User: Which sequence fits this backbone?
DNA sequence: GGATGAATTGCTAGCGCTAACATATACGTC
DNA sequence: GACGTATATGTTAGCGCTAGCAATTCATCC
């Protein structure tokens, strides 16, 4: 099939075409199209008209090569399908919308090698900055990030040493906070439900902080259950059933994310289990979805939007050279939300 | 703060640096790095080693300009936060992963002007193809798409005329199918709940098909309720309460998406309403989330992953010039899922 | 041994645009 | 009316890479 066949031999349009059509030099056309430098109102109008008539779209490839500037920010995150990263993106976009910068997303699926290749790919477009999830990367990835002369912001974790800048919460601390709240509420037989993802370092750190703080209270995780793949809501139900059948004495279930927590909550309600009396429940993330559930699940807000905002601000200000008083290590405070599934 | 300060005056690396480090011409380095043309095993090894030592990352900007080839596919969709587009992306990535092409996402938030500007922005990077949601665009956007000599696939709707190629379901038909199923099940007092989005053409078409088919059965939509913003699950509850208070005789509620449908379902279950006996419920999209709910909501699967796959296939094959027997207008069939909230 | 062709490597000329500088034109000023 | 000072436009030289061809090397053959 032929495409766009209404134009004959379609040689792609260039500045020269616009320049010829409007009777000024290419440079002037370039200036008009970028709103840079002084151009008289008359020629501006002429040029704009010509560009519009022709349907000219500037070639950023050439522009970027000539100017050595690319207004893209590489955003490298594990996934888009779990409600947490879209929120981060929202925060990023919010801030970048007020700058010439634009986010471009790369997905890693929690695979270090994929992260490395995505990073390589993105860096080959010479972006103005990088926002990347986590502090753990392959050696090669770390080397690339260090070797590149642009702002690099690692987000969603502050338990470690950043290459350049970092923004997020301490997951260890989040885990500890939850453990303390649980202990204080008098729960004594704790179960943990999470993902089978050795590579999800943030979940791991949360768990570490959790067990550590429990230990201080003389408690421990008495049973655990893990899943992978499938609908998190369904898995939450199934895992909850499994763990409660195996360990009927449990009186608290800590889920590594809100979605499986919600599944667990629905299961308990189905079974007529008294929540939070008989069993307490808590998830992690503070996703909006929870508010529509029959009972508000306890959770911990990780400040996702704020993380995105701060990270974008750091990149934007560094790219603009405006670093006066700029914080490059921002630790946000996770906020415990008791909801209605955790006794106070 | 100084960044990447372990290197002194950091002049960015170019092919020339690798060429000098490995003692061959730039051209040969280029060939090695792109796996193109004949290069002896010995030099290949030498070059690769030099590139790695230096930490060289090719400059795709320059490469793209020189070769006039950009292996990016612009994917322009309204949003990432409603579970439907991530699925489309999954299908797209799945197919593009087997090609040199890479998707780049642009978000429109359902705003035509935003769509236009995002499209302009993306086209200025001269992608190898465009996948764009919907068949409705501004005149300027349509002109751009027509004027560009690359494959353009419009997805998620086939009720209209595509610029080039299209893949998706007929939303009118989806609406009709649901209306017929409802009528056949004997429901007679129908309510509709949706979004306040005059610009969501697909929801509109679904509604049109729905009312049209209802009319054929001598039925009509007796009450409606709309929302915007906020948590869809919460809104679903609230709207359901509102509409049922206002029109207690309704015996079926058709929701324009699964999330508000799920909210409505939870509300009905809370209130002890017999579903699907007293009131039937149905949503739209077939999102995975539904399976974790206490009752399986009736819905209609829009074939999102398959849509993404097909669209990507069309772009990939057209870009590769392999158009033999290629379907460029693919209508997928929406699949009604009765679940447990629609009598049969 | 020199011709032959294939495999390997190098050279030249842009790709379309913009930074930096050079030139032209307008506008006051005394 | 000569001069400076803005303002407006044009010219030149690449940005870093690759297509297309030229040149070189090497093995092979009669």
Assistant:
């Amino acid at each position: 099939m032929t495409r766009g066949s209404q134009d004959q031999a379609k040689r792609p349009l260039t500045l020269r075409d616009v320049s010829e059509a409007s009777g000024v030099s290419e440079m002037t056309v370039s200036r008009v199209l970028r709103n840079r430098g002084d151009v008289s109102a008359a020629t501006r109008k002429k040029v704009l008209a010509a560009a519009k008539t022709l349907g000219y779209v500037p070639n950023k490839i050439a522009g970027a090569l000539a100017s050595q500037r690319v207004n893209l920010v590489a955003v490298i995150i594990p996934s888009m399908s779990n409600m947490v990263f879209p929120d981060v993106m929202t925060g990023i976009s919010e801030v970048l919308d007020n700058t010439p910068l634009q986010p471009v997303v790369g997905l890693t699926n929690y695979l270090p090698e994929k992260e490395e290749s995505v990073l390589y790919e993105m860096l080959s477009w010479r972006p103005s900055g990088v926002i990347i999830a986590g502090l753990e990367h392959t050696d090669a990835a770390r080397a690339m990030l260090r070797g590149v002369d642009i702002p690099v912001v690692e987000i969603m974790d502050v338990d470690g040493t950043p290459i350049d800048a970092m923004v997020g919460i301490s997951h260890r601390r989040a885990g500890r906070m939850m453990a303390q709240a649980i202990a204080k509420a008098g729960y004594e037989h704790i179960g943990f439900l999470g993902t089978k993802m050795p590579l999800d370092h943030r979940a791991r750190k949360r768990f570490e902080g959790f067990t550590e703080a429990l230990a201080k209270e003389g408690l421990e995780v008495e049973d655990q259950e893990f899943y992978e793949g499938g609908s998190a809501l369904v898995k939450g139900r199934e895992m909850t059933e499994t763990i409660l059948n195996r360990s009927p004495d449990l009186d608290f279930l800590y889920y590594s994310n809100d979605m499986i927590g919600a599944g667990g909550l629905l299961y308990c309600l189905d079974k007529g289990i008294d929540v939070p009396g008989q069993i307490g429940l808590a998830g992690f993330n503070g996703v909006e979805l929870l508010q529509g559930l029959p009972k508000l699940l306890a959770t911990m807000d990780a400040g996702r939007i704020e993380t995105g905002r701060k990270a974008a601000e750091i990149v934007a200000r560094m790219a603009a050279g405006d670093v006066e008083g700029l914080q490059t290590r921002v630790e946000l405070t996770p906020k415990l939300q008791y909801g209605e599934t955790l006794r106070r």
